[in-house]
Fold this sequence. Notes:
Number of domains: 1
Strand order of the largest sheet: 5-6-7-8
Strand content: 5-15%
Largest sheet: 4 strands, parallel
Bound molecules: ligand V47
CATH architecture: Alpha-Beta Barrel
Amino acid sequence: MNVHFEDRRLLPIREKVEAGLRLSYEDAVTLYRTNDVLALGYMANLVRERMHGNVTYFNVNRHINPTDVCVASCRLCAFGKQKRDPNSYTMSLEQVWETAGKGWSEQITEFHIVGGLHPELNLDWFCQMLRGLKERYPQIHLKAFTMVEIGYFARREKMTIRDVLIQLRDAGMDSMPGGGAEVFSERVRRIICDHKLTGDEWLETARIAHELGVHSNCTMLYGHLENEEDRADHLVKLRALQDETKGFVTFIPLAFHPDNTALSHIAKTTGFDDLKAIAVSRLVLDNIPHIKAYWVMLSARIAQIALRFGANDIDGTVVEEKIYHDAGSTESQALKRGDLLRLIRQAGREPVERDTLYRPVTRTESAFTVLV
Ligand code: V47
């Protein structure tokens, strides 16, 4: 294709991309530094179409956040609260099970469950939560707990990461979301999430989960104090682990939302940054099958454009979202299945509803009518 590359530094990278060769750490830094966003889009779209053709995936899911009480007080976060904060909340087990059933639950294929690091809820409570969900909603996939929560449970219960993961898996945890990775750079972590596990610990927890047959997603939080080298390093580390385990399903670049956080002086990311983040991840993460444009975080408008910049998934119906809305998101908390279909179709892509592990979901005509 005859695409004009304004930034000549990208030409050797273009050759590699067209030949299907792996990009280096230095290439990743160059890609993050360029302003030639059309060239990035061209290359990322080439890879995206090579891997997925015209298909764009979405799912019908519901987020559940059992508590926002968190002992960690990360500067990047507006969601976590101290237990004594009158605005904090903690659901009872019955409330978690009841919340799960609200909304368009009869069509939902996935519960996405994450929460704060609560000082009093023990591992047994979370195992009961999972078992209760499985009893009530046996067909729904439970994508639950970030690597950070697993690390906390292990510390709190004086257990190994492996044993915590085994207990949760046996209680019904089917896979894990990708949150909490932030950026692996220790220099940045010391400022934005001081009390969280280290980057190496995040990766090691993911490795153990994958070894136990539990797939997970992975993320990178960008748009705060990190530089291009930190971003490139993060992607290359995820890619190296994926070479070993093949356990990551989807990568989700997450734009930092500064409102109501201790870093509220930092400017919000721009559409330009967001499209770059999607495109570079598609180009560097050659072994991670899916790149998600999470519409809650990007806005439905940018997420739609991202489907031409490397993304092949737009996430799901979500229903109730707290992490980004506590940090100033004005995007709606839910999209109906019909909204997702329209966004994808109007980007000229073919929508395919998937389950968490990307098996296509077929709907009967009557179920379809209820949802559109
Ligand atoms: O773990 C917290 C990040 C994550 C802020 O796996 C913030 O399918 C921006 O991981 N601004 C939660 N980001 C979201 C997440 C996710 C979302 C959708 C799909 C999947 C998936 C995973 O959001 C947190 C943290 O890394 N975060 N606070 C903030 N102020």
